[in-house]
């Protein structure tokens, strides 16, 4: 019992800048939760007369935590799935390595990369919101887990070398340089990474207990061939990398960076390579690769920890990657990863050579880890042909290994659209004897860098927005249920009743007579109003007349000036809406077959059969709902939960969590009073203090997969993020 208390209290203490006291040895503790808590409480009163304020805004004061049983119950139930803070590890000493001579291969690797990222984190006041974990040196033993002792000795020997000697050693390696501080910095980098992993898993896992499944997401623009080699036979590590490949013409020029390197032996299926065969990949290409490759596989894999090889040379303006993803794209990628492994995500900085692009992208990642709402993603939401080709190939290559790809019909493509063009260009470079050609490229690069600087300057101003002071508001009629809500939720009850009566009578005079219906409408509008005025981020409202309330809510949205509202109805409900102008995209998820209705761009019915006890909704959310929603780019989302729903609590939590990347996380959930038992789970998903349990993974049935396939065929021309095979692309273009 005491171990459980330690595990649940440690994250809270961490958030207050406190650690579990050494004097409280768990083994000697009484096996009684109350006594254990009492001892801990006493210990802390003794040590700290004034307890420091929490770093996150949602956790209660430590004292309050120990004295209020109700708070404890609610807090434990809702928040202890993960540690409540975000750790940041940075040390000035890491910037002490630099290139001492001229080498065009290495001159982008500068200490300013770290400095500018850290400066930008300070600029956005993100540093003070993180928990600082001191850096330590990695031991030789730790380094030799992946490196040979010979290599270790070489690097070690560079500490005392002069410039000439350093230069000579460096020449033995590909795109590597040494500095007398390299060894020290490398040891710090290893130590820092291990410290980070330790602090992220310490809330949940005891020392010495091995994790069973780890997902490594390598969004750096270079292939992590080293990681691939280390884990390619290991089914406990799923390695995902996208990288500039260009038909093996880009560094590291390896055949095994292609999509068909799926892993070896027992590790087959656990190596996911997404090769980019052209430059210029952007937000929609990256998101499509997440929706159609990484996320379905990752949810099936069920990782316990996620490590991100967090390189930003895949971002806009980077001279290495030459890709187009804007900084907020990394917020969205991070957001999706946080829905896995109970939110235990460790991001470790890798590449990124355009300083402004790098530092803004780093900040976007950290903001998301701190659970700030996400900026809307910019750009046209349609993956390019070459990206779709790569996605199709990875899906086809991995079909034998993953249930989520079991019914995939597409086969690997051999004649890729980029192949002939790329060959032509290669020839052109080879035959080009013009000496000024290279010079011209250099000049363009620096012009490009300045152009990106200017673009990002105005772009960030456009997409950043003030975070609403309260995350989640709730208006629940059944007062008895209010105590079930996570404590960050504000319960709303006030609104001008007379004003509402007038409003309602114009719409439906009968409703005014119904006290309960009026109260419901009042609830829904009160919460919605707070969302629209950006006083809260999202909210939840109980209603006895959910469909009428939603119709009112939508009208209120357009009166307020919104352009696009995504409305997802779960269950049997008829909404009287005008769906022609595209201001509403209505998606109805229900069980009954609506044979007479055909799907149209703005009115989609998804017939879904739930798998009792498990969650089979992953493929629908990832393969269909998210791509449609991202293509639509709503200003606000309304999720209505009604009777006869074909989705269970796990599927609804999943939907609510994943959709929060859109519309600056502005979501209103309207719950019909008959379904009110869902309120706690939905509030937990909205409040985002932790990642809810989405239930055991169940593969979708053939019937369900077929339903999605049909919808995709009908709608991919309208909603282009649905495309994941070239057949889709050709028929849809
Ligand atoms: Zn890189």
TrEMBL record:
Pfam families in alphabetical order = Hist_deacetyl (PF00850)
Q: Name one GO molecular function term.
A: deacetylase activity
List the GO biological process terms: epigenetic regulation of gene expression
Q: List the disulfide bonds.
A: 2-26
Q: Does the keyword field hold Disulfide bond?
A: yes
Residues in FZ domain copies:
1-39
SUPFAM superfamilies tied to this protein = Arginase/deacetylase, Frizzled cysteine-rich domain
Keywords associated with the record: Disulfide bond
Q: Tell me which PROSITE patterns the record gives.
A: FZ (PS50038)
Protein name (database record): Histone deacetylase 10
Q: Give the source species.
A: Chrysemys picta bellii (Western painted turtle)
Organism ancestry: Eukaryota, Metazoa, Chordata, Craniata, Vertebrata
Designated gene of the protein: HDAC10
């Amino acid at each position: 019992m005491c171990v459980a208390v330690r595990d649940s209290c440690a994250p809270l203490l961490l958030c207050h800048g406190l650690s579990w006291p050494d004097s409280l040895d768990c083994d000697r503790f009484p096996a009684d939760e109350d006594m254990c808590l009492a001892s801990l409480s006493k210990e802390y009163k003794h040590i700290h007369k004034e307890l420091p304020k929490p770093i996150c805004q949602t956790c209660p004061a430590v004292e309050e935590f120990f004295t209020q049983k109700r708070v404890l119950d609610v807090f434990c139930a809702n928040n202890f799935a993960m540690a409540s803070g975000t750790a940041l590890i940075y040390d000035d000493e890491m910037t002490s390595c630099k290139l001492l001579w001229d080498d065009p291969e290495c001159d982008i690797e500068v200490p300013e990369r770290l400095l500018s990222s850290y400066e930008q984190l300070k600029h956005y006041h993100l540093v003070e919101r993180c928990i600082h974990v001191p850096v330590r040196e990695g031991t030789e033993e730790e380094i030799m887990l992946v490196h040979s002792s010979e290599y270790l000795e070489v690097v070690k020997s560079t500490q005392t070398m002069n410039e000439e000697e350093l230069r000579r050693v460096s020449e033995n390696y590909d795109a590597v340089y040494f500095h007398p501080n390299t060894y020290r910095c490398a040891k710090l980098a290893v130590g820092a990474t291990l410290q980070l992993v330790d602090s992220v898993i310490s809330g949940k896992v005891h020392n010495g207990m091995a994790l069973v499944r780890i997902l490594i997401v390598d969004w750096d623009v270079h292939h992590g061939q080293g990681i691939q080699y280390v884990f390619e036979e290991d089914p406990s590590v799923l390695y995902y990398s996208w990288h500039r490949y260009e038909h093996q013409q880009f560094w590291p020029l390896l055949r095994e960076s292609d999509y068909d390197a799926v892993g070896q032996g027992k590790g087959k299926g656990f190596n996911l390579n997404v090769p980019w065969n052209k430059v210029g990949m952007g937000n929609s290409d990256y998101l499509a690769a997440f929706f159609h490759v990484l996320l379905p596989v990752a949810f099936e894999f069920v990782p316990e920890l996620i490590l991100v090889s967090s390189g930003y040379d895949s971002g806009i303006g980077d001279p290495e990657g030459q890709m187009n993803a804007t900084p907020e794209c990394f917020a969205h990628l991070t957001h999706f990863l946080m829905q896995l492994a109970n939110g235990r995500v460790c991001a470790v900085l890798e590449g990124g050579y355009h300083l402004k692009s790098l530092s803004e992208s780093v900040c976007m990642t950290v903001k998301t880890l701190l659970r700030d709402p996400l900026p809307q993603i910019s750009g046209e939401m349609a993956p390019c042909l070459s990206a779709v080709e790569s996605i199709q190939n990875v899906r086809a290559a991995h079909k034998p290994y993953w249930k989520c790809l079991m019914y995939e019909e597409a086969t690997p493509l051999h004649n890729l659209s980029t192949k002939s063009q790329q060959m032509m260009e290669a020839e052109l470079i080879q035959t080009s004897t013009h000496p000024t050609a290279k010079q011209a490229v250099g000049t363009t690069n620096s012009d490009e860098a300045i152009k990106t600087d200017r673009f990002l300057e105005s772009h960030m101003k456009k997409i950043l927005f003030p975070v609403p002071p309260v995350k989640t508001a709730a208006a629940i009629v059944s007062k008895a249920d209010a105590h079930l809500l996570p404590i960050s939720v504000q319960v709303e009850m006030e609104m001008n009743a007379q004003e509402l009566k007038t409003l309602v009578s114009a719409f439906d005079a009968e409703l005014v007579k119904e006290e309960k219906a009026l109260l419901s409408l009042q609830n829904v509008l009160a919460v919605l109003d707070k969302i629209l005025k950006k006083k809260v981020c999202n909210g939840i409202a109980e209603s006895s007349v959910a469909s009428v309330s939603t119709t009112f809510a939508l009208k209120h949205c357009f009166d307020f000036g919104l352009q696009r509202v995504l409305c997802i109805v779960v269950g049997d409900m008829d909404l009287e809406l005008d769906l022609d102008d595209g201001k509403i995209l209505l998606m109805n998820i229900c069980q009954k077959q609506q044979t007479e209705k055909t799907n149209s761009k703005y009115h989609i019915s998804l017939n879904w059969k739930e798998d009792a006890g498990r969650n089979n909704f992953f493929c629908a959310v990832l393969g269909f709902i998210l791509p449609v929603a991202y293509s639509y780019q709503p200003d606000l989302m309304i999720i209505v939960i009604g009777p006869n729903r074909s989705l269970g609590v796990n599927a609804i939590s999943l939907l609510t969590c994943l959709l929060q990347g859109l519309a600056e996380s502005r979501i209103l959930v309207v719950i019909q009073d008959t379904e009110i038992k869902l309120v706690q789970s939905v509030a937990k998903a909205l409040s985002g203090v932790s990642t809810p349990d989405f239930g055991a993974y169940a593969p979708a049935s053939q019937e369900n997969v077929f339903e999605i396939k049909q919808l995709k065929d009908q709608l991919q021309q309208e909603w282009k993020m649905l495309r994941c095979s070239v057949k889709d692309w050709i028929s849809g273009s």
